[in-house]
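Side project, low priority. Logging it here so it doesn't get lost.
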Amino acid sequence: MDRRARNYLDTSLSAQERADDLLQRMSIEEKMGQIVGYMPDKGSIEKLEKDYPQGAGEVVMLFAGELDSKESVVEKVTRIQDKIMELSDHRIPAIFHLETLAGALLPEATSFPPGIGQASTWNPALQKELAKIIRNQARAVGVSHAFAPVLDISRDPRFGRQGETYGEDPALAAAMGTAYVSGLQNDGDLKEGVLACAKHFVGYHMTQGGIHAATTPIPPRMLREVYAKPFQAAITLANMKSIMNTYSSIDGEPVVGSRRYLTEFLREEMGFDGLVVSDYTSISELHTRHMVSETRTDAGELSLKAGMDVELPSKDCYNDDLMKRIQDGEVEIEILDRAVRHVLIAKFELGLFENPYPMSSDEIERIYADPNNRETSLKAARESIVLLKNKGLLPLKRTAQKKIAVIGHHAASTRSLFGGYSYTSLFDAMLNVGNTMAGVDFEKISNLSASEFGVDKNLYTYPGSIVQVESAKTEELVRKHYPTCNHLLEQIILECPNAEVTYAYGYAYAGDDTSMHDEALAVAFEADVVILTLGGKHGWGMFCTTGEGIDSTSIGLPECQESFIRKLAALKKPTVAVHFDGRPISSDMADQHLDAILEAWNPGQYGAKAMADILFGDYNPAGRLPVSVAYNAGQVPLFYNHDHGSSYHVGTINEYTSYLDCPREPRYYFGHGLSYTTFRYSNMTISMEAYEPTDQVIVTIDVTNTGEVFGEEVVQLYIRDKYASVVRPVQELAGFVRVPLRPDETRTIQFIMDPSQFAFLDTNMTWKIEAGEIEAMIGASSHDIRVKGSFRICSDLFIDGRTRGFYANAIIHS
């Protein structure tokens, strides 16, 4: 028995000191246990003794999807933690990790819009508040590692996971992601926080063909200036403690096995000092998919040497054969120790040695019953919804429309309120024949019987599509777990007690079936106003049209919806559309024929209330697009901050200023969103005409609500480096703020920028603030610029890119 003073149990020491003490006491077997995950299946946890004789570093929490209550989650977490600590010689507790993109993936946890909806709020303070709720609910039941935020920059809507991201702009993603990390990590006090795990490092969404996990052709400058910027911001400003790798390769190197990206770039260049965990099965893919390792053990060795700390979801490549190589000296023990040390530091910072279990039942109930949970979720839903088009139809008046027709699959589907990586998306995965979530066999972990799993092994697909017809049990499970959650049809009936509300299914969310169009057209014919619900389905599995592993060459509406809009137009009925999906609406028919369009994304459990509030004018929409919307996939990639001389600013001498068959410009521009009121911008000032690269730049603008109702304007500041030594973007978002304004009220907004925000990588790949003229532009979108000004930077300055400015500080004055 080790009788030395056990300093690792001394809470007065730092996490690093405690980790160093414990590390030198551990056997190689116990160390190997710390760098692998354990994914409980529906069998007994006693098998842990065979497969994990010295415990496990992390535990996958997907089992929560088949449990009915938070109490059952607590019971299972406690049992697993007890067993893992019992197996470890030093009673090392496990970290339990959970997906938290749209709320904790737990029964009874509060649901929020997914990443693209959160980004549409343009509200970092709200983002931090919802992250606090997620942190509290997760930590209460024993979770200490949150898999979010998704900091991928998304410029390709063909890629099915766009809905998880903050969109196309690195400054917006940096601001939202940093706020989210701060909320999850409790502003650095991890003993009451959780590790925030950002993903997917790095460049994951810019793949060849928009295909999940395909290679990523991103040049080094763009990789750093655009795709790594949100990660760097969260590391620098919020001390982010965990990162997950991309599945992709860059320039011939799979990131999961690349020392260049995991150590030289991430740790040495960017200064990250936290825990790196593998995306599920990505290490084994070095052998099975990338074909750079002849065996799984070779893959494990390559990844461990590259800088990967923990293999997830379970032990495969960090296996006994790899342990033998370390024992035999073929792999240096120091490489293993480095990874184990990162795991132990995280566990000490989280306080798991002192408190490895869920909270008391009273504490849990208090956290889950907090009325702020509902208020924040409803606020996030309202602020996420974008009014894309309005020809005066909205807001509707409850007393004016006596007959309301509601049409479409989504209107009568509660599941449609929830997106990918929401708790409800687990229901699809549990019930589906085919899964699209990488690295998880849901049939293996589900408690459903073989006959129940998949419901029907011969599921039909929607005509004209390979998407399977949704199981009726999905809706049953959503209604069971969210009993007070109305779908949109129910909410409209509730909101309009004096109106005759008639529903028709009309069409599905996939395919080309028009067999129910006539019935829906007959309902529409009798109505005073028509509310269409449009879009696809965001989630996991073959029931869905967008989501992980669900990519598409079409970014438009399914033919069954597009053709219905064409038919409905002949009736000349006032029509508003509400669009649900993980990617924005792109539809010629909707643009040409509909009077109003709301982009709702997947607004969460209070989404129907939020939509009704906007439809009937109880809430004035102020969501803004975090992406540019293309007319069709032939324009992809399409983004506003493209380089001078590129995209729709190519500027060559040519009689053709568009594609032969399509505009070059977006259908809807980045930052676009309408309101029920109007705003005037005036009195723009820049504090000086010329600045040294160490001076603060202050830009001030007055914004006035010139309409008759209260509204919020998202004031957006863009900058342009007019002439530079390398090609720069035509414009870049530099700052933004959401400003509440009463009718006739004027408020002054002050943007404070460090000139290091304007720094770029020069021809020697060195971060440089370069002398020259900078144009400042303020407006309501990247296209709707209202006022402009300019200033000069007087001299060059080379800087540390890790500590550069990422976005302006905005102050609202009365």
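Brief comment: The first strand starts at residue 37 and ends at 38.
Revisit when time allows.
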